[in-house]
Design goal:
Layout: E1 3-12, E2 21-30, H1 34-52, H2 62-67, H3 71-76, H4 80-96, E3 100-107, H5 117-136, E4 139-145, H6 149-162, E5 164-166, E6 172-174, E7 185-187, H7 193-209, E8 247-250
Parallel strand pairs: 1-4, 3-8, 4-7
Antiparallel strand pairs: 1-2, 2-3, 5-6
Helix pairs in contact: 1-4, 5-6
Length: 252
């Protein structure tokens, strides 16, 4: 039976204050394509090494590209134009490798007091993975960046046994996520190129919904999400139109 590997990373925080949104991006790769996709990422990282002297194993996350904030980026002191080039290149790489991505953007300012954005975001991600698994007659393994492991595990176990999805005819229907293999697996993003790509997509989805302030050079402009092109998983928001293909924005 085919297996989808789903890599999930976040942008923003879950607190009542702090970031405007809480975002989860999910990068999908079929197990049969994993080795080729991994080799493709390594190839691009070697190109970045030759172009910018960026170490092949250096962690690349949105915050590092925005602010030159990791040790590797501080050493290189790359310009905003160079960091934009790296960000855009990694987004454009994904369709070339046959990857797919979608994102759930929770607008915390519109949530009721006491509402947990992490619960909503993960529930929506797992609902879409359940649909993908059920309709494709395959299974899914979920991996996520370290942190909130216990909360994520509880949400996933609830989805496996009591999952539900909205109906086109109103209300909801029970759809347990039978294709979910075991609990989601926490991973250190420094050790996963795929989680790093999910991190970049999460911030790009945020900026697709909420454009950045004007700057002469934008490391991440409002159209960065759309650089994914055919890698945007359109079925994720087919019933709930968002600001772009593959983005679920809630509350609307």
């Amino acid at each position: 039976m085919p297996v989808h590997l789903a890599y999930v990373d976040e942008s923003g925080d879950t607190g009542a204050t702090g970031s405007r949104t809480y975002v989860l991006a999910c990068l999908l790769v079929r197990s049969s394509q994993w080795a080729d996709a991994f080799d493709g990422i390594i190839g691009f990282r070697r190109f970045l090494k030759s172009r910018f002297d960026l170490p092949v194993r250096a962690e690349i996350k949105a915050n590092y590209l925005l602010h030159n904030s990791s040790e590797a980026f501080r050493r290189l002191e790359l310009s905003e134009r160079a960091r934009h080039f790296i960000y855009r290149g990694l987004m454009q790489l994904q369709p070339k490798l046959g990857l797919s991505s979608f994102a759930v953007v929770i607008n915390k300012r519109k949530l009721r007091a006491g509402t947990d954005p992490l619960d909503y975001a993960w529930t929506y991600v797992l609902q879409r993975l359940e649909t993908l698994s059920r309709k494709g007659h395959d299974e899914a393994i979920v991996m996520h960046d370290e942190g909130e492991t216990e909360a994520i595990r509880k949400i996933a176990r609830r989805a496996r046994r009591f999952g539900s999805s909205g109906s086109l005819f109103g209300g909801s229907r029970r759809l347990p996520f039978k294709g979910l293999i075991d609990d989601p697996v926490p991973k250190n993003s420094r050790q996963s190129y795929f989680l790093q790509l999910a991190d970049l997509s999460a911030y790009a989805a945020f900026r697709r919904c909420f454009p950045p302030p004007p700057r002469r050079v934008q490391v991440v402009h409002t159209g960065m999400w759309d650089e994914l092109r055919t890698a945007r998983y359109a079925k994720a928001n087919m019933r709930v139109p968002g600001p772009s293909s593959g983005i679920v924005l809630w509350p609307r």
